[in-house]
Write a structure and sequence with these properties.
It is a single chain. This protein is mostly helical. It has one domain (93-330). The protein has helices at residues 8-14, 30-44, 48-55, 65-78, 83-90, 100-104, 139-142, 153-172, 178-204, 226-234, 263-281, 287-300, 309-315, 318-326; strands spanning 108-109, 127-130, 147-148, 222-223. The protein has a four-stranded mixed sheet.
């Protein structure tokens, strides 16, 4: 097996592990250092909300990037990103490239409800996953389909965007290491899956075409792996949703503008740069880098040697995202 280890800092910051030596020199103020160490302990215990609450008293764009790295790790952790799962996924063959994000998420099922109950998903605890109902006649075929409760997806997206904001400032300000670019690429892969799936769920939702008081946002679970997409493509939800309602306009978040990148373009560019950072930091073969490459190549529908920033920008328009999800029907 090829190595999946990048460097000590990657394993420290990306998996949310604490290490007192990492905080040496952050500040001579004992109170500040104590708060940061407490946040690191919270991260190590996967109490991401506590870590965020402790760290947001500092400027996320502080000249000291170590505080920013911890805070971005906390936001990513609360959104479900788990680097240990990513390493395990990357070391196994025969997986669907598009399913990388669904495989590395550390999220749990939302409480099961009957048809009359309102969603009780909880983004802060990660209890957001839903699945095909066991009573569904197609359950045996699609039992591995994974969805996120549509009532909680925006909270997860927001956490990822907080992490992206922090990491992009680090990278753009020349305060970064290759680890920061890799971490940003992983966050952006998750963001791409969540935003794309959310656009699909909203685009299929019949109620969003009604007058405002009758709309029911979030009632359609958000697909996050290939089986979930195939379930929607192959089976109508009656009066609740239908794949045929989906069109290019559903992906108009940050609509195409020659002067600005849309969210899909930004995410894939981040992934591309993460791959380049891997090559720079660890030029030897690496399973995690291969997983990111395969995910990017699948999303772009072309081999890696044909992918660069310009090709991502020209391909991943709103029409390009629409074409990508519709290509799943051929899988």
């Amino acid at each position: 097996m090829k190595t999946t280890t990048t460097m000590l800092a990657l394993l420290l910051f990306l998996s949310g592990c604490s290490n007192d030596s990492a905080f040496e020199g952050i500040s001579s103020d004992s109170g500040r250092k104590a708060v940061i160490e407490e946040a690191a302990i919270a991260l190590d215990s996967r109490d991401y909300t506590a870590a965020i609450q402790l760290l947001t008293e500092f400027d996320a764009t502080s000249p000291d990037p170590r505080v920013s790295r911890l805070l971005s790790s906390a936001y990513m952790g609360r959104a479900g990103v788990d680097f240990v799962n990513l390493i395990e996924y990357s070391g196994q063959g025969g997986r669907e490239d598009f399913d990388m994000v669904a495989e590395f998420l550390a999220l749990s099922p939302a409480p099961e409800l009957d048809d009359r109950e309102e969603s009780q998903c909880n983004a802060k605890t990660g209890a957001v996953l839903t699945f095909v109902d066991k009573k569904d006649r197609n359950y045996d075929v699609y039992k591995t389909a994974q969805f996120i409760d549509g009532h909680c997806i925006e909270y997860l997206i927001d956490d990822l965007e907080q992490a992206q904001y922090i990491l992009r400032i680090l990278v753009g300000g020349d305060l970064h290491s290759p680890d920061d670019e890799i971490q940003l690429g992983v966050a952006s892969a998750a963001h791409f899956i969540f935003v794309t799936g959310n656009a699909v769920a909203d685009g299929m939702n019949f109620s969003l075409a009604y007058e405002p008081e009758k709309r029911e946002p979030g009632i359609i679970p958000v697909p996050i792996n290939m089986q979930a997409y195939l379930y929607y493509i192959n089976f109508s939800g009656g009066m609740r949703y239908d794949w045929s309602r989906l069109d290019e306009g559903a992906f108009g978040v940050g609509a195409d503008d020659p002067g600005h990148l849309n969210p899909y373009q930004k995410d894939l560019i981040d992934i591309y740069r993460a791959v380049q950072a891997f090559l720079s930091a660890t030029p030897e073969e690496n399973d995690v880098r291969d997983s990111l490459e395969n995910f990017l190549a699948f999303a772009m529908q072309r081999p890696m040697d044909e992918i660069d920033v310009n090709s991502i920008t020209s391909t991943m328009t709103t029409a390009g995202v629409y074409n990508l999800v519709n290509s799943f029907s051929a899988e």
